[in-house]
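Revision sheet: structure tokens.
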Amino acid sequence: MKPFSLKAFPLKLGVLPIAERKTLGLTYISIKREGIEMPKWYEFELGKAADILTRELFKLKEGEVFVITADTESDERVVEATARAAFACGAKPMVIWLASPLGVGKAADPMLPIDALVGALRGADAWVEFNNEWLLYSTVYERALKENPRLRYLCLVGMNADMMVRCIGRIDYQLLGEFLEKITELTRNAREMRVTTPAGCDVTFQNPPDMRIGYSLGYADTPGSHMMAGQIGWAPIYETINGKIVFDGSVVPPIGLLKEPIELTIEKGEIVEVKGGREAIEFERWLKSFNDPNMFKLAHICYGFNPGAKLTGNIVEDERVWGCTEWGIGSFRGRPAATHCDGICLNSSVWLDGEQILDEGRCVHPELAELARKLGKQ
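Predicted:
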């Protein structure tokens, strides 16, 4: 066989079909020369993030069954990198690809192979969800956690390579944990709260004395449901929530990134009026389409504090944008609804029992401000 010569191929090899490039032995060439395929964007960084996810956050052990679910809107690179990292840990990765449902949560149920999915998850030790049309709050999710008490679930819905590198691979988890622990403690001890934003949000509420509040640091090394790092969530006393909530970041579902604010008038924890432009009309129609009064009820509030997060229209990232507040609407623990959605209020100012801790997204509480500075967010 004659030695291969680049001179024989004047065209750019990057435009050749994959099969032909493999035949030429060029699939993994990374020489910086015109016509030679380079490593994919963030290829090395994505591998590191997947390693952190499987080894550090899940703490996968030899022989554990690790289920990865994704749909036809998911990022294939994220799925493959995670499966490789899990296999390198000695775990047994199982990738399940689904057709993308036309809804999320319970609204996805009619389009899911529920029994088959639950059967697979019943035998798993850990499950990461990369589905873009998420299974969170669906019948599959509820049954899997109920029927498999050892299951460790991590919600990374809509994850892509860029987000995985920024929001998982480049995080100082110890320092972020200190920050989240401190602001959680301050909020847990507060009874009266007020939240405002430059877009016009101004809402007040009370927290219950036995408030169930927790933060997500991204770890999924214990049984139960876990979320990506950088969020603190709780349910106020619903009847005390009054005022205006203005979404100016994103609303998912049904819209994504907003072009104009959506203003909600809240009375005793329920949406009584929706104001704004075309997107507000679309949102109100969507809420009404379920014929479910619980779809007009607030479910929870969250702070967003992931140093790597940015507003993209992907809700798992948007609700972690530094200094935002997020309101969930619809289905929540102990109060079922047709589905669930989340809306983002950017650059939030927050008062706890009259003391301001955030000013338009920046920490003004001394201890929080110092930790934020160390995290590069002050």
